[in-house]
């Protein structure tokens, strides 16, 4: 170990910071957080530094020549290599630990990259060898730690006495583990103080009962980097993860290694668990005290049945929470250069599904949508594209209304078909689109561009389809679908 990690108590102790520029200010800010008494030494602070620290720090404009009163630490941060070396030598001679910014050879101590969450402080050092790696590690650890970790530490700290009184010593550790990884912690981290208090009281009353929790989590459209930090955290704390087919493999790789994974479907064609059984499974697993994650593509509350699943859990008295995700429309729009609203083009957007709740026609007023003339994003619309286009045209949308079909958006396999209402069914065929895909309909779709843009002229030639052929679909009547593609289309869309 090149440097010995230690945490200094600097409360009400003197620290001298040489310099008066941005560098010195950065160090002073950090030291003030630890309640140190900071004195700036040097030719005179720059005006913004003086303004920021006036009243909170002392300023000495003479050159630092003697260390009196003797400080706890010295930080040489003038930015002038020679001056910093001189100050470092002075401190050393007086036996005061010194840090000279960017001069490891002149340092008695180094300041690590810091992660702070209330009373939790994490310092990372690479022994001065590669500070950039230290900073990158910090970013990754930052991403793993809940923003309100400090609140959780404070919550636990304030209840230690009560737990010591009421929970037998041999059960204490297990109790804290359940509380700090279960529904109580979840409530604290969500900022739900009343909920946390109630659950904590219940946990104390029944300190031996396991308490599970279900998080219904949006996995986003596929790119694992589009997960929320919260989703990442619950995935790494989960005992069991129930996921469906829309969840990308990249996201699945982020699940805690020894968590159990259960595939619950559902493509429309396959034999995955029916909805009621998914509900029952979640209730059973949480009842066993497990931390369950129900992972869903996109956002759980956008055509994701998240609301129904939450109802089932609530009815069964299971603690549950919902973590939002980036919905397909937002993710695909971002990756295909399609703004869902755009000044002068479209002032609103509607998300609709082309599939009815029970497999029948959805109760969508296409005529009204056509009249509004703003952006329409159709989910689950590939197999019904002809019908959708026909209905919108019957409602008054022009045949040349732009449409962008975005398939497997945000994933490396993303495909974009840029077409219009009239050519939509044919171009879906020509482009080989099988889904999952969204249809973005309206003026903004004309902007579609980017990774995976399909060259339709070539694609039409390859499929022996005339480019620009009139759509054959009439309102309400499905477009003809070429042999061999239809099953696949139905399966995914
Ligand atoms: N809850 C999800 C939607 C589930 S419905 C969300 O918020 O995104 C399933 C439909 O979502 C698919 O048929 C398709 O229309 C759309 N979809 C999901 N992921 C997609 C992706 N990566 N690219 C394009 N469409 C996607």
Outline the fold blueprint.
Blueprint: E1 14-18, H1 22-33, E2 37-41, H2 47-53, E3 58-60, E4 73-76, H3 81-93, E5 98-100, E6 113-117, E7 120-124, H4 131-144, H5 149-158, H6 160-166, H7 169-181, H8 183-189, H9 193-205, E8 213-218, H10 229-237, E9 240-243, H11 249-252, E10 260-263, H12 275-287, E11 291-296, H13 306-315, E12 320-323, H14 328-335, E13 349-353, H15 366-372, E14 375-379, H16 385-394, E15 402-407, E16 415-420, H17 424-430, E17 437-441, H18 456-462, H19 486-492
Parallel strand pairs: 1-2, 1-4, 2-3, 4-5, 8-11, 8-12, 9-10, 9-11, 13-14
Antiparallel strand pairs: 6-7, 14-17, 15-16, 15-17
Helix pairs in contact: 7-8, 8-9, 15-16
Bound molecules: S-adenosyl-L-homocysteine.
What would your notes on this structure say?
- The chain is of the alpha/beta class and 493 residues long.
- It has 3 domains: 14-111, Rossmann fold; 212-326, Tetrapyrrole methylase, N-terminal domain (Cobalt-precorrin-4 Transmethylase, domain 1, 3-Layer(aba) Sandwich), CATH 3.40.1010.10; 330-492, 2-Layer Sandwich (Methyltransferase, Cobalt-precorrin-4 Transmethylase, Domain 2).
- It is 36% helix and 16% strand.
- The strands form 4 sheets. It has a 5-stranded parallel β-sheet with strand order 3-2-1-4-5, sandwiched between helices. The protein has a 5-stranded parallel β-sheet with strand order 10-9-11-8-12, sandwiched between helices.
- α8 packs antiparallel against α9 (193-205).
- The chain is globular.
- S-adenosyl-L-homocysteine is lined by residues 221-222, 246, 296-299, 302-304, 327-328, 332, 379-380, 406-410, 435-438, 493.
């Amino acid at each position: 170990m090149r440097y010995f990690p230690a945490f200094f108590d600097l409360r009400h102790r003197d620290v001298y910071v040489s310099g008066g520029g941005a560098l010195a200010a950065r160090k002073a800010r950090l030291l003030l957080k630890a309640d140190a008494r900071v004195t700036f030494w040097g030719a005179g602070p720059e005006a913004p530094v003086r303004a920021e620290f006036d009243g909170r720090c002392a300023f000495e404009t003479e050159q630092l020549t003697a260390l009196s009163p003797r400080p706890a630490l010295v930080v040489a941060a003038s930015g002038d290599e020679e001056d910093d070396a001189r100050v470092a030598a002075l401190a050393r001679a007086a036996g005061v630990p010194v840090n000279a910014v960017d001069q490891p050879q002149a340092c008695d101590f180094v300041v690590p990259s810091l992660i702070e969450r209330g009373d939790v402080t994490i310092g990372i050092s690479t022994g001065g060898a590669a500070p950039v790696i230290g900073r990158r590690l910090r970013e990754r650890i930052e991403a793993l730690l809940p923003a309100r970790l400090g609140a959780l530490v404070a919550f636990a700290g304030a209840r230690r006495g009560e737990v010591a009184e009421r929970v037998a010593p041999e059960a204490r550790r297990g109790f804290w583990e359940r509380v700090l990884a279960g529904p109580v912690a979840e409530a604290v981290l969500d900022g739900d103080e009343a909920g946390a208090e109630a659950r904590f009281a219940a946990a104390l009353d029944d300190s031996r009962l396991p308490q599970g929790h279900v998080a219904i989590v949006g996995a986003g459209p596929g790119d694992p980097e589009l997960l929320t930090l919260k989703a990442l955290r619950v995935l790494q704390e989960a005992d069991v993860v129930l996921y469906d087919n829309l969840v990308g493999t990249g996201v699945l790789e982020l699940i805690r290694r020894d968590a159990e994974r259960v595939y619950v479907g559902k493509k429309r064609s396959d034999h995955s668990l029916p909805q009621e059984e998914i509900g029952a499974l979640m209730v059973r697993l949480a009842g066993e005290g497990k931390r369950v994650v129900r992972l869903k593509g996109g956002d759980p509350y956008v055509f994701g049945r998240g609301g129904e699943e939450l109802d089932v859990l609530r009815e069964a008295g299971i603690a549950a929470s919902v973590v939002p995700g980036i919905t397909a429309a937002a993710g695909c729009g971002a990756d295909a250069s399609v703004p869902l609203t755009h000044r002068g083009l479209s002032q609103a957007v509607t998300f609709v599904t082309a599939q009815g709740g029970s497999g029948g026609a959805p109760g969508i007023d296409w005529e009204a949508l056509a009249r509004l003339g703003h952006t329409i994003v159709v989910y689950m619309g590939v197999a019904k594209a002809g019908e959708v286009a026909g209905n919108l045209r019957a409602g008054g949308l022009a045949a040349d209304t732009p449409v962008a079909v975005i398939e497997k958006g945000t994933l490396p396999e993303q495909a974009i078909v840029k077409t219009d209402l009239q050519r939509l069914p044919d171009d879906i065929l020509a482009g080989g689109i099988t889904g999952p895909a969204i249809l973005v309909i309206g003026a903004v779709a004309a902007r579609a561009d980017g990774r995976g843009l399909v060259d339709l002229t070539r694609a039409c030639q390859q499929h022996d389809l005339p480019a620009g052929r009139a759509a054959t679909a009439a309102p309400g009547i499905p477009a003809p679908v070429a042999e061999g593609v239809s099953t696949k289309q139905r399966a995914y869309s």
